[in-house]
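thought: user wants a sequence for this fold. calling inverse folding tool.
action: design(structure=
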């Protein structure tokens, strides 16, 4: 697995199902997220177990992410046709319903490889070849600012994705860093010796 934080997010052009249900033969990441923040999140496979809970949880947070100027793109190694079938399967039958963000196809595994998260098998729970349960938050310049990877049995907390985007925007707008457990509305920290001393004096008991 490679670390992409601080680097340009790998671009890709692939087939996808858009949030309005349209199937397209060319979805180019750089064009879709130009001038926006973005969440690019990988999951192992359609029609599986932990994955639908994550995709539905992400859909419940898309409106908030859009308010933050953030585009959401989900990816797996399944085809765009399989994505579409999953969208058209009712939630009470194991489907995800009509999620309102793009699901992109990575049938040749090139995107998972570019992001360094194609599973190799071995001691993890992932079968070799699938995309790992990985999330990338990208800034408006196309730079990866956050990356996290869970093993297959461990579902992600999608509220944390929103928190990270809000923290990134707070830092960009205020120039203050975000301490442990920072949430929107909390105090930031000036990254100087005096700044950290002041923050800890006022907030260490809340950490």
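)
observation: tool returned 207 residues.
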């Amino acid at each position: 697995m490679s670390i992409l934080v601080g680097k340009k997010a790998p671009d890709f052009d692939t087939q996808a199902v858009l949030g309005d249900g349209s199937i397209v033969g060319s979805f180019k990441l750089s064009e879709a997220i130009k001038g926006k923040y973005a969440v690019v999140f990988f999951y192992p496979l359609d029609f599986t177990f932990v994955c639908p809970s994550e995709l539905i949880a992400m859909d419940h947070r898309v409106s908030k992410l859009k308010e933050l100027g953030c585009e959401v793109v989900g990816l797996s190694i399944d085809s765009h046709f399989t994505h579409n079938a999953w969208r058209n399967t009712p939630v009470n039958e194991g489907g995800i319903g009509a999620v309102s963000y793009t699901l992109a196809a990575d049938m040749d595994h090139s995107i998972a490889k570019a992001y360094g998260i194609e599973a190799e098998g071995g001691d993890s729970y992932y079968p070799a070849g699938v995309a790992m349960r990985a999330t990338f938050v990208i800034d408006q310049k196309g730079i990866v600012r956050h990356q996290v990877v869970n093993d297959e049995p461990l579902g992600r907390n999608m509220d944390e994705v929103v928190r990270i985007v809000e923290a990134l925007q707070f830092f960009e707008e205020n120039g203050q860093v975000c301490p442990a457990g920072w949430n929107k509305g909390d105090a930031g920290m000036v990254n100087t010796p005096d700044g950290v001393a002041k923050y800890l004096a006022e907030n260490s008991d809340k950490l």
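thought: summarizing for user.
answer: Here is the designed sequence. Residues 13-156 form a domain with the Glutaredoxin fold (CATH 3.40.30.10).
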